[in-house]
Each structure stands twice: as C-alpha cells, then as structure tokens.
Design goal:
Keywords: ATP-binding, Kinase, Membrane, Nucleotide-binding, Transferase, Transmembrane, Transmembrane helix. It contains 15 helices and 9 strands. The protein has 436 residues and is α+β, with helices and mostly antiparallel strands.
C-alpha cells in the first residue's frame, strides 16, 4: 500500500489536532452555544453520539501513527468522522444548523492527504446526508415570521455542493500537482547524486588508467628482453604475454571509450553485430563461461534491426555477464549464464535478458542497485552503476529482478532505430548523435 503524503509523526499529529478541535467544537456548541445559534438539540441521542465519538477519537489518536501511515486507514477514519458529523448535525437541527458547512472539514483533509477518489467519496456521502436532512426538515422551521424558508435552505444546500466540488477538484488537483513536483524533485536529486558518483568514478578511472600506462609499457619492454634472452619458448612467458596483451587491449579500449563518450560518438549497430561482439568478448575475456543463447526472434531480424550504441555499450553488457557468471559460480560451482534475445517490432523494443543461477538479490537492495553505490558484502555495485549509466545515456533501460526459479535476471530494453536514423552517416552521428 502506497504511503500517503506526509506520513511523518508531525503530519499525523496535525491531522489528529484538527479532528480533536472538531470534537471540541461540537461539545462547545452543544453545551454552551445552542441558544445563541438557535440549535434544536435532542440531548439524549446527542450525548450518546458524543460519548461514542470521544471513545473513537481516543482510540484513533492512540493508533494515529500506524493508522495514518496507510491510505486505507486514514480514509476509514475520515469516513467515520463524516458519519459522526452527520449524526451530530441531525440531532442538533439538521439542515437548519448554521454549522452544516463543517461537513467540508473531512473532505478538505481527504483532498490534501489522499488520492482523488477519497474526497469524491466523502463528498457523495456528505451531499446525500445533507439532501436527506433537507427533505426531513419539519414544517415549522420552514416558516419564519410568515416567510417561506425552503428556498433559503435550498440555496444553502446548493452552496454546500458547490463548495464541496470546488474543494474536491481544485484542492485535490493542486495537491496532486505538488506531489508530482515533489516526486520529480526527488528523482532529480537522486539523478544528481548519481551523476556526482559517476563523475568521481570517472575521474578516478582516468587517473588510474593514466598511471597504469607507464608500468604496462615497462612490463612490455621487460617481457621482450626476457624473450630475447631465452633460447626456447616458455609456457609461463606465453601466459604472461597473453595477460599483458589483454591489459593493454583493455586500456586502449578505455581510452577509446572515454574519447567516444566525450565527443558523443554514437552510431547505429545491427543486433547481429552486437551478438557477435559479445560472443567474441566472452571467449577472449571469460573463456570458461558457459553462455546459453536463446533467440526468440527470426534470424533475419538480427541482421535487419539496429540500436543506438557507442564504445561503452559492450563493456556495460559484459559487466552484467561477468556478474552473472560470478553469481552462478558461488551457487553451482560453474559459470553458467543464460542470455535470451527477443525483438518486438510492433513495440519498437528489443529485450536482452541475462540470467544467472546465483542466490538472487535481497529485495531491499533491488531498488538501489544500478542507481546508487551501496554497501553490501559483495561490493558497492560499481559495475551495475556504470552499466546503468551507460545504458541510460543510450536510451536503454536496465531492470533487475529475481527469477522465480532462482537467480537474478537483468533485462535490458533497447529502442529499435527507425530506418532513417539507422542509415545516418558516421559524421552526422558523431556531431549530434542519433535519435530514435
């Protein structure tokens, strides 16, 4: 159940204060101001109503924090408040009571704190009760000094309906707009925090890449000298050269990716090319990983459909595959990863799903992974954060969820490029990017 606006203890106290003041007003008018305002009191039922309302209000005040934390609880409380107001008005003059407009108080609270259906429901209840009280007014109050008061009471009823409708529509819509703005501000603050973290990570990565360049060059020279001094071929030297070559290749790709992102070099890429690139990268960087590909689309679609890419897309997907392989190793003892790809031209969407066979992700961490750095036993989620940022920049969406049969599913949702956008020249793409 969604939390309502302002579910803090202070907000709950404010609502409780207004309801308490309403009860005190009823008691004060009944005991001390009935003659002043011409209230026609029926004391015996009024006493019963007030006693029940005091008990009910005491109970809801004691339980205000858990009760007001949910929409349903607050709506029930305001509905009962409305019924108590109707009962008090009925036994203190009905439609002739000068304080009939106090039925607007629960409607106002509902318009500010609850969804738009709640004030409409309370408006319907209050209007129906007011209408019944109009029809049950005795004949004597209808005649005052020889004047017909029916038109006056009808005007009061009409004024009440107009006031309730204005409150239900205007106040509720203004409150809804304010909630939307608060949600947008919260999203912007979260995005700003994410950008600050990404900037810090990017700065640190650039510094470390610059610092690694010199040691790698020195290692390459030393390795060449070792090879010259050796008479034969050593398996150790071959493995060292392979590992060093991988480091140099990764560093070169990092530089290219940095330049590509800085210059906004985005280009269309066929799905078939992306799949081949992922397969080659996996064989090169993670040869022990068992990838199970599942294509639920026609082979010709892979060669026809294109998506927007840059140098950061493949590393972003590879980071997800690496995380999935690591999670499967912890549970199965083998790096097994399932990758499924589905193309839905009718929706202009391409779905790439990466599933592991690990223990899954704690539900409390799912909303945070990929958007913020988190503190968990398995790390800070840096790879997911960078992957999410790279995909978001390309107009893609990353969704993480636990698989019903165990493990985690990372779904990437791409937008299919239109034919016109997919055929743009590289120069145009580098200048302004491609819009789908």
């Amino acid at each position: 159940m969604a939390k309502i606006l302002g579910t803090s203890l202070q907000a709950a106290d404010q609502v409780a204060l207004l309801r308490t003041l309403g009860l005190l007003l009823q008691i004060g008018l009944t005991m001390f101001a009935a003659d002043t305002f011409g209230l026609s009191l029926q004391m015996e039922p009024l006493v019963h109503v007030l006693v029940l309302e005091v008990l009910y209000l005491s109970l809801t005040l004691a339980l205000r924090k858990p009760l007001f934390a949910k929409e349903r609880g607050l709506f029930i409380a305001l509905s009962l408040d409305t019924l108590f107001w109707i009962s008090w008005l009925h036994f203190s003059g009905g439609a002739t009571n000068a304080f009939i407009s106090l039925l607007l108080l629960p409607i106002a609270l509902a318009a500010v704190t609850l969804p738009i259906w709640a004030p409409w429901a309370l408006t319907a209840i209050s209007t129906l009760a007011y209408s019944l009280m109009i029809f049950t007014v005795p004949e004597s109050p209808m005649q005052h000094h020889g004047m017909d008061m029916s038109s006056h009471y009808l005007g009061m009823w009409f004024n009440f309906v107009i006031s309730a409708l204005v409150m239900t529509t205007s106040v509720a819509l203004i409150t809804k707009r304010m909630r939307r703005q608060d949600a947008q501000l919260a999203y912007m603050r979260e995005g700003q925090l994410r950008q600050e973290q990404l900037l810090a990570l990017g700065t640190a990565s650039a510094q470390m890449a610059h610092q690694l360049a010199t040691p790698l060059s020195s290692l390459r020279l030393l390795l060449d000298e070792v090879k010259e001094d050796m008479s034969g071929t050593s398996i150790t030297v071959v493995e060292m050269e392979t590992a060093l070559g991988r480091c140099e290749h990764t560093l070169a790709e990092l530089r290219l990716a940095t330049e590509s992102i800085r210059d906004r070099r985005q280009r269309p890429q066929k799905i078939a090319e992306l799949v081949d690139s992922l397969k080659q990268k996996t064989l090169l960087l993670m040869p022990q990983t068992e990838l199970n590909w599942l294509f639920t689309c026609a082979p010709e679609q892979l060669a026809e459909q294109s998506i927007l890419t840059d140098m950061s897309l493949t590393p972003a997907i590879m980071a997800l595959i690496e995380n999935a392989a690591r999670a499967s190793v912890e549970t199965l003892g083998a790096p097994q990863v399932d990758i499924s790809l589905d193309i839905v031209p009718s929706e202009d969407q391409i779905y790439l799903q990466i599933r592991d066979y690990g223990a899954g992700i704690a539900p409390s961490l799912l909303p945070q992974l990929g958007t913020l750095l988190i503190d968990s036993p398995k790390g800070l989620g840096v790879a997911l954060l960078l992957s999410h940022a790279s995909l978001e920049r390309l107009g893609a969406e990353l969704i993480l969820a636990n698989h019903p049969q165990g493990g985690t599913v990372a779904q990437i949702r791409f937008t299919i490029l239109k034919d016109k956008a997919a055929s743009l020249s590289p120069n145009i793409q580098a200048a302004g990017g491609v819009r789908s």
